[in-house]
Amino acid sequence: MKLNLNLKKKFQRCCLVFICLVVLIFQSDIPNLKAFPMDNYQGEMVIEELRLKVPSDAKAAWLNAEKEIWEPWLSSQDGFLGRQLFWDKEKEEALILVNWKSKKLWKSIPMSEVNLVQQKFEDNVKTTLNVGESPFELIYEGELNKQV
């Protein structure tokens, strides 16, 4: 009798543990377990986000240098889809959004080439403003991924 009672209690405990495990499994966020890191989405459109400090007295020089230096170079890059320039008068900050066909195409551009274009941009601004160094400070650099 006592042996039967022990088996019955053990069976009940096993069933309780099994039920708890099933509930825990189905309560967990399974889609997150199957999600890939964003680096795996190399084929999806990506937006490069840049924020710069652009003083109001240098805004015209910034826009001109963007048009003369960055725009032609970007237009020649594989995967470039376009860009938007914004300026916040109160913060004296610029927001640049550059649309790329894919992260893979964007990141395949050699940094040495980007640095050369940046140097041309800064030289253009310094000449236009007749200053020793560029008044534009990079505040933030990141990327935005399209959400469904």
Describe this structure in words.
By secondary structure, the chain is of the alpha+beta class. It has 2 domains: 2-35; 43-145, Alpha-Beta Plaits (2-Layer Sandwich), CATH 3.30.70. It is 49% helix and 23% strand. The protein has helices spanning 2-27, 30-34, 59-75, 103-107, 111-129, and strands at 46-53, 80-88, 93-100, 137-145. It has a 4-stranded antiparallel beta sheet. A hairpin with a 4-residue loop joins β2 (80-88) and β3. α3 (59-75) packs antiparallel against α5 (111-129).
Tell me the distance between the termini. 62 Å
Strand content: 15-25%
DSSP, total strands? 4
Number of domains: 2
Largest sheet: 4 strands, antiparallel
The level 1 CATH classification of the largest domain is Alpha Beta
Helix/sheet category: alpha+beta
- What's the SSE pattern? HHEHEEHHE
Radius of gyration: 28 Å
CATH topology of the largest domain: Alpha-Beta Plaits
Which blocks of ≥5 consecutive residues have pLDDT under 50?
A: 30-38
Q: Would you tell me the overall average pLDDT?
A: 85
Fraction in helix: 40-55%
By DSSP (H or I, 4+ residues per run), the number of helices equals 5
Biggest sheet, spatial arrangement of strands:
2-3-1-4
